[in-house]
Specification:
By secondary structure, this protein is an alpha/beta fold. Strand 3, helix 1 and strand 4 form a beta-alpha-beta unit. The radius of gyration is 19 Å and the shape is globular.
Length: about 325
């Protein structure tokens, strides 16, 4: 599948992106999460969206992939940073999720795209929520996947996951970095859906080769930690919204997805049994179809879209 892979100077930084599909098709914007470049979206997923009649826009968030690293920004001591936050003192991250949202807005303006169907995963879901909150004129529909509202009272990741993610690769060699990320994705994927090791290795290599750095990851973590609770603003959304989550997610617990759906009026919620914090191959086509069926009634001409009669009905309950 042919596509455009390039960069743009927007919002004061270089942002990398890919465009897949036909120029006349509605734009589906995919924003991925922490420490995950645009190749974190499975290639089969992107292909299926294009086949369903979308022009897919993939973005490397700042500090990841081929987008500009923010190494000129100082990373504060994590222990001191967290202590200050816990005690109620000001703790400023190198940048905020709002800055990452503004990167996306600037890119859409650069590309002269006036409306998108935005899909965000994990941290990307947080950025997508902010895009819908602050720039509703740009967003036709919102799909938030394995994400959260920023409400600090919601359940935290499992301790074992935090301990594993806090580890570092054995060395800075390519092989050790790949193995580190393989271990991470195996852990996040849960017990039921374990990917074929060759496929997982290819998937991880696509991300490592595109670019992942420890400092960039640290800065993104700090942006997440300093994010405000979006619940009050989400409650004012009128944009059609879909929330997807796995009930075996040990990083962002399923209660976080349920809280997101509860916060957004008239949103739809689907919980996938045994799905962790990833896109498992066995249910990938189901996830794509759920997103497509949700979006189709909100296209300018849904009658021209395949399977438009199978669109899901709006509800705040699980479907």
């Amino acid at each position: 599948m042919s596509f455009i892979d390039t960069t743009a100077q927007v919002n004061g930084i270089k942002l990398a992106y890919q465009l897949h599909g036909n120029e006349q098709d509605p734009v589906l914007l995919l924003i991925h999460g922490l420490s995950t470049p645009l190749t974190g979206w499975p290639s089969n997923m992107v292909t299926r969206f294009v086949e369903q009649g979308f022009r897919v826009l993939l973005v490397d968030n700042r500090d990841i992939g081929q987008s500009q690293l923010q190494d000129h920004l100082k990373i504060p001591n994590f222990v001191w940073f967290l202590l200050k936050k816990k005690l109620g003192f000001s703790a400023n991250p190198p940048y905020h999720l709002d800055d990452m949202k503004n990167d996306i807005v600037a890119l859409l303006n650069h590309l002269e795209i006036d409306k998108v169907h935005v899909v965000g995963a994990s941290m990307g879901g947080m950025i997508a929520q902010l895009l819908a909150i602050h720039h509703p004129e740009l967003v036709a529909t919102l799909t938030s996947i394995m994400s959260t509202t920023g409400d600090k009272s919601l359940p935290k990741m499992e301790k074992s996951v935090g301990e594993e993610l806090a580890k570092k690769p054995k060395s800075n060699s390519y092989e050790d970095r790949v193995q580190y990320h393989i271990n991470k994705w195996q852990l996040l994927g849960g017990e039921t859906y374990q990917e074929n090791i060759d496929d997982l290795n290819e998937y991880v290599e696509s991300m490592v080769k595109r670019g992942i750095t420890a400092k960039g990851t640290a800065r993104q973590i700090l942006a997440i930690l300093c994010a405000k609770n979006r619940t009050p603003l989400l409650s004012k959304l009128t944009i059609p919204s879909l929330v997807l989550h796995g009930d075996a997610d040990t990083l962002v617990k399923v209660e976080c997805g349920k809280a997101t759906a509860k916060a957004i009026p008239n949103s739809k919620l689907k919980i996938y049994p045994n799905m962790g914090h990833n896109f498992p191959s066995p249910i990938l086509s189901e996830i794509v179809q759920d997103i497509v069926q949700f979006i189709q009634p909100h296209l300018s001409n849904p009658a021209n879209s395949a399977n438009s009669n199978n669109a899901l009905e709006p509800t705040n309950d699980s479907i």
